[in-house]
Design a protein that fits this description.
The protein has 192 residues and is an all-alpha fold. The protein has 6 helices and no strands. Helix 2 packs antiparallel against helix 5. It binds fe (ii) ion. Fe (ii) ion binds next to helix 2 and helix 4.
Length: 192
């Protein structure tokens, strides 16, 4: 009896292990897909929250704080938009057409110009009420882009799982460049 029991236990362990390995593989696949969406959507959420913080800093006349936040936005959106332009948006041409993809690319140029203008003004010191209102208008336009970009996450759901997994890795790896949007888009010098 003893050998049979051992054999049975061994078989049960093997089945359990097999199921565990299969589940591990399944979760790994799902994790890989989830990583891209979590990272991508997390970027948009962070941009929205930071833009709202900039607005609050402007309302409270905290000019240095507002500048720090806008510089952080510049650094974070550079790799994100570079990723979109080089890897994600080309995937959307068959889905929404070249014209729409070109509009999305043009929006990035507009966003870089907004950041450069806001940074430049904040570096000059205190702002008048009219200037605060103008900057808030600029920030609203930037926020509109972040909201529009959430639609890209929906379009990405149409891509094959292997490509989505690869996109997740590309998005994360591009962050290592640390190149601000204004530099990547050529509206500021590297040291600006
Ligand atoms: Fe985006």
């Amino acid at each position: 009896m003893e050998p049979k029991e051992v054999a049975f236990c061994n078989m049960e362990w093997r089945i359990g292990n097999f199921v565990a390995v299969r589940l591990q593989g399944l979760f790994k696949e799902v994790d890989g897909m989830a990583d891209f969406f979590a990272e991508f959507r997390g970027d948009h959420r962070w941009v929205m929250q930071t833009l709202l913080e900039v607005q609050r800093a402007l309302e409270q006349r905290q000019w240095e704080r507002a500048l720090e936040l806008v510089e952080a936005l510049d650094r974070a959106t550079g790799p994100h938009m570079e990723f979109e332009e080089k890897h994600l948006y080309p995937e959307f041409v068959p889905l929404v057409g070249q014209e729409r993809v070109q509009e999305m690319l043009n929006d990035h140029g507009g966003a870089a110009q907004i950041l450069q203008r806001v940074k430049g003004r904040l570096r000059q010191g205190a702002l008048s009420d009219e200037e605060v209102a103008a900057l808030k208008g600029d920030l609203q336009r930037f926020l509109r882009h972040a909201a529009d970009c959430e639609g890209s996450a929906l379009l990405a759901e149409a891509l094959p799982p292997e490509r989505i997994e690869e996109l997740g890795r590309l998005l994360v790896s591009l962050r290592a460049t640390g190149r601000p949007l204004t530099v990547y888009r050529g509206v500021a010098a590297a040291q600006d």
